[in-house]
């Protein structure tokens, strides 16, 4: 097929910020991956080039009708200097599921993986190594055809950019305060809630800003139809521990099918923890809290991996969970996942893959 990634290197490499100075998504590695799509021709011209601005005509379809999708995953440094990816093929699959929903062309899974491996290999020096740090990988593609008529674009640009990120918990894990949103909705049955597409995030900004002003860290979304059932929290899936059982909302098309979520469920299976994927009514959680059965709650997603929930604010009431402390299950899921991701804990699932050192 003649699939070869060309590499145009920067003249001078920049220095990666110190691990302690890293935040999320502010600094980008020296190079990025790009390729283009044209209908009739398919994906072509895969290349690694210096990170920098892209030229986009103001008529580019994405700027008007938001035909754009993305992914998020991380590369982790091990103590012995290797670089690991965590379940990257799952990101390729989910990207294609998002593409189908947005009428965008698919990207071959192996092309996607090859692009990530090659770019991360080149940018090995940008993978930070302090505890809790990682190299965030953001693949995305968007419609570039110059045509204001509403239709699937005939052209796309695909990019992968890399950003070293600091520890989510520089001062240790601490439970978050969550605002249960009574009015705004994130998605609805039949919508695009399961796709990682820009519009899902733009629509949350107003709600999140209000929650933040009121002193909360994240918004917990309820279902778009009845506002009775729990969906997810910020860019994380949500889990509750009721007595010794784990419950989480099911994948019915309105929430993002998280890879961290799936990993937590798989760990439950391995550890013999009973886990249920089912509708979770807000009222059930409030009642369980009242009865002392709500022992823990946490969010799960690539950015934080696991984020304990200490307080849920709903309809004027404040539910405190586990006295505002991180619970045992929450801690164990966090330790197991971050341990596997960084090679400290035996990976019995085949979840991690090493980025092979090919490039010099
Ligand atoms: C990305 C994302 C998640 C988490 O998915 P992971 O694969 O675990 O990172 C959950 N919810 C939303 C809305 C997301 O965008």
DSSP, total strands: 18
Structural class: alpha+beta
- Percent helix among the residues? 10-25%
- Which fold name fills CATH's third level, the topology of the largest domain? D-amino Acid Aminotransferase, Chain A, domain 2
Count of helical regions: 8
- Multimerization state: single chain
Unreliable stretches, pLDDT < 50, 5 or more residues? none
Straight-line N-to-C gap: 25 Å
Q: Biggest β-sheet: count, sense, barrel?
A: 9 strands, mixed
- The radius of gyration computed from the alpha-carbon positions, rounded to a whole number of angstroms, is 21 Å
Taken in chain order, the helices and strands follow as EEEHEEEHHEEEHHEEEEHEHEEEHE
Number of domains: 2
Give the name of the CATH superfamily of the largest domain: D-amino Acid Aminotransferase, subunit A, domain 2
């Amino acid at each position: 097929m003649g699939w070869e990634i060309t590499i145009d290197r920067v003249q001078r490499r920049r220095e990666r910020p110190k691990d302690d100075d890293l935040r999320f998504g502010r600094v980008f590695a020296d190079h990025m991956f790009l390729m283009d799509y044209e209908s009739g021709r398919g994906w072509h011209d895969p290349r690694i080039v210096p990170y920098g601005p892209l030229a986009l005509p103001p008529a580019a379809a994405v700027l008007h009708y938001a035909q754009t999708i993305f992914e998020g995953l991380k590369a982790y440094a091990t103590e012995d200097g290797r670089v690991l990816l965590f379940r990257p093929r799952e990101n390729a699959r989910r990207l294609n599921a998002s593409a189908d929903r947005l009428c965008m062309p698919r990207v071959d899974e192996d092309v996607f993986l090859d692009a990530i491996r090659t770019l991360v290999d080149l940018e090995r020096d940008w993978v930070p190594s302090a505890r809790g740090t990682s190299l965030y990988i953001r693949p995305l593609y968007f419609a570039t055809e110059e045509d204001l008529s509403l239709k699937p674009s005939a052209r796309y640009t695909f990019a992968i950019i890399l950003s070293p990120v600091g520890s989510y918990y520089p001062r240790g894990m601490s439970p978050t305060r969550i605002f249960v949103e009574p009015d705004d909705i994130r998605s609805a049955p039949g919508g695009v809630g399961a796709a990682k597409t820009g519009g899902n995030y733009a629509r949350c900004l107003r709600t999140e800003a209000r929650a933040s002003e009121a002193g909360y860290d994240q918004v917990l979304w309820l279902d778009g139809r009845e506002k009775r059932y729990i969906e997810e929290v910020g860019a994380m899936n949500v889990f509750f521990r009721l007595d010794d059982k784990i419950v989480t909302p099911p994948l019915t098309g309105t929430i993002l099918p998280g890879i961290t979520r799936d990993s937590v469920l798989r760990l439950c299976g391995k550890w013999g923890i009973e886990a249920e994927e089912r509708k979770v009514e807000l009222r059930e959680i409030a009642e369980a809290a009242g009865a002392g059965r709500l022992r823990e709650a946490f969010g799960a997603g690539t950015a934080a991996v696991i984020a304990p929930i200490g307080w849920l604010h709903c309809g004027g009431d404040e539910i405190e969970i586990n006295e505002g402390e991180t619970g045992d299950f929450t801690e164990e899921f966090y330790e197991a996942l971050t341990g596997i991701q960084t090679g400290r804990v035996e990976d019995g699932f085949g979840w991690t893959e090493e980025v092979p050192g090919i490039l010099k």
